[in-house]
Design a protein that fits this description.
Length: 519
């Protein structure tokens, strides 16, 4: 009996110590560490909206009323969208300026919409020395895993070194041919719809599906038929992850939607399994010739583990395939979608681009991909669209060392949220016509569009971590738009409701119904 009581007492004591340990760890990570980080930032003079525990400022972000109050969509299309897509940031900017602190749950973030501050902060930091906020890494783990978007330090250098050559101009040219068939298939479907008396088409949905097919082909060589399983699961995972009510940064927030999380995990495992089997089949059937998709190029040039060498493991390759899919297809689809909105509103620009296509590409059925670079006006239009409706509306960083900015110190561990939409719509650096569609601003300054600050135009991010797929996007944009504009003209449907909104990317909340007419 005495022994039993002693054991029970010992067990209870052990439990109490264990619970105390857990509690102190929780207290440290949810309270002590964030408050310390906040104080260090605050010492530099940064302020911000008052947070509450445990949501931080998320309550205000979710409930905040739109400054333009156009959340139900408007029939009037205004490109002055910052206060529509980020009403809370627009409001806080008015009070706290272009650099301030806000809280996602128990994580303080330094908000940055000041290009000069960004330049001073980032100029001395190498790509490999940047981190990504841990809360986002955890949140997006099923999508990106340890792919290039999320890796850091020497691992990032190795991945970037392995991946960059796959996007060489010669390889991109080979990939361009993979883009034509899915696009033609979509355009043929439009022709059938128009012939059957349905000229109103939600082009956003159509283009997103086609861009998904293109990225599946260019990344891992899948046609819609043989790749539809991977493709559908990748889409399903994205929807599962981002259509739920999300509380990034709030402790235990994953437990709020356990079903969704389990579903995403299950899909993640199934996708990994399918991609691993594709890689395995390629290894087994390799005959010395390279398949000209990203996977084939990475496998050939870099000796996948268990095959020739060890530059990149098969597991990492799976994460890169997912990264290309999630990082590459929706962003590109949205660039084309927003372009069609703007061209539908500006018919003279449609005509100018058609004229340029006739001059540069001619009327041939086959596109000579080497001529795409000469579509200059199309390049200006793309830049102007990426400025007004940047598919990637923000960039994120986490400091991995103390960063000196003038007299200030941004402490190691600081999370940063760079508001690209705010900078792209800032009249102080773009002038009074900032919210007008004027592709010609890129005529004489094709890189910065006459922006007064070099860090004011960041559609593909900045520094060493700039988007690795930007040239692939440029190629896809020109191929798809060339094929579209040579067959159809576009005008705005009276059913279109303008409501740009954020679901990871910047998208038209109610799709983009256009009236499509054959030429
Ligand atoms: C319109 C299309 C696209 C836009 C707007 C876009 C935008 C971006 C942005 C803003 C970043 C973050 C850069 C930073 O943090 O400084 C990024 C990174 C990245 N993008 Fe893209 N992207 C596009 C297309 C693509 C495509 C087609 C691919 C691949 C097939 C791709 C793959 C990546 C990867 C792997 C990274 C991580 C680079 C690194 O951290 O080293 N992107 N992209």
């Amino acid at each position: 009996m005495g022994f039993f009581i002693l054991s029970l007492a010992f067990f209870s004591l052990a439990m109490v110590i264990f619970l105390l340990f857990l509690f102190s760890r929780l207290l440290f990570s949810c309270w002590v560490r964030p408050i310390r980080a906040y104080r260090k930032l605050n010492k530099n003079g940064f302020e911000g909206p008052t947070p509450s525990f445990p949501l931080g400022n998320i309550g205000e972000m979710k409930n905040g009323k739109n400054i333009n109050d156009s959340s139900l969509g408007s029939s009037v299309v205004s490109h002055d969208i910052h206060a529509t897509v980020f009403p809370y940031f627009a409001r806080w900017q008015e009070i706290h300026g272009k650099v301030f602190i806000y809280w996602l749950g128990t994580e303080p973030f330094l908000y940055i919409a000041d290009p000069e501050f960004l330049k001073n902060m980032s100029s001395g930091v190498l790509g490999k020395s940047w981190g990504k906020p841990i809360v986002f890494k955890q949140d997006r783990e099923p999508m990106f895993g340890r792919g290039l978007v999320m890796v850091e330090g020497d691992d990032w250098v190795r991945h970037r070194h392995v991946i960059t050559p796959a996007f060489s101009p010669a390889n991109l040219k080979a990939m361009a041919s993979l883009m034509v068939e899915p696009t033609i298939k979509m355009l043929d479907k439009w022709a059938t719809l128009i012939n059957s008396g349905k000229p109103e088409i939600d082009v956003e949905r159509e283009i997103t599906t086609t861009a998904g097919e293109i990225i599946a082909r260019t990344s891992f060589g899948l046609s819609y038929q043989n790749g539809s399983k991977v493709f559908e699961k990748l889409r399903a995972m994205q929807i599962t992850l981002f259509n739920s009510n999300r509380y990034v940064g709030v402790p235990f927030s994953k437990w709020m939607c356990p079903k969704k999380n389990l579903e995403a995990k299950k899909l993640g495992k199934e996708i990994d399994h399918l991609l691993l089997s594709i890689i395995d089949t390629r290894k087994k059937t390799w005959d010395g010739s390279t398949q000209k998709d990203l996977l084939g190029l990475l496998m050939e040039g870099n000796h996948v583990e268990g095959w020739v060498g060890k530059s990149i493991t098969a597991r990492e390759l799976v994460d890169e395939c997912k990264t290309f899919f999630f990082g590459g297809h929706e962003t590109t689809a949205l660039a084309i979608t927003w372009t069609l909105l703007l061209l539908a509103m500006h018919p003279p620009w449609q005509n100018q681009l058609r004229e340029e296509i006739r001059e540069v590409i001619g009327d041939e059925d086959q596109i000579d991909f080497s001529r795409l670079a000469s579509l200059k006006k199309m390049g200006w239009v793309m830049n102007e669209v990426l400025r007004l409706y940047s598919p990637a509306p923000n960039a994120q960083r986490q400091a991995r060392e103390d960063i000196k900015v003038g007299d200030l110190i941004i402490p190691n561990g600081t999370n940063m949220w760079i508001d690209v939409v705010a900078m792209h719509h800032d009249p102080a650096i773009w002038g009074d016509n900032v919210n007008e569609f004027r592709p010609e601003r890129f005529k004489d300054d094709h890189l910065y569009g006459g922006c007064k600050h070099k860090m004011g135009f960041l559609p593909f991010g900045f520094g060493g971590r700039m988007c690795v797929g930007r040239n692939l996007t440029m190629m896809e944009y020109k191929v798809v738009l060339t094929l579209m504009l040579t067959r159809f003209s576009f005008s705005l449907s009276p059913n279109y409701r303008h409501s740009p909104s954020i679901l990871l990317s910047l998208r038209p909340r109610y799709g983009l119904p256009l009236i499509v007419q054959p030429l």
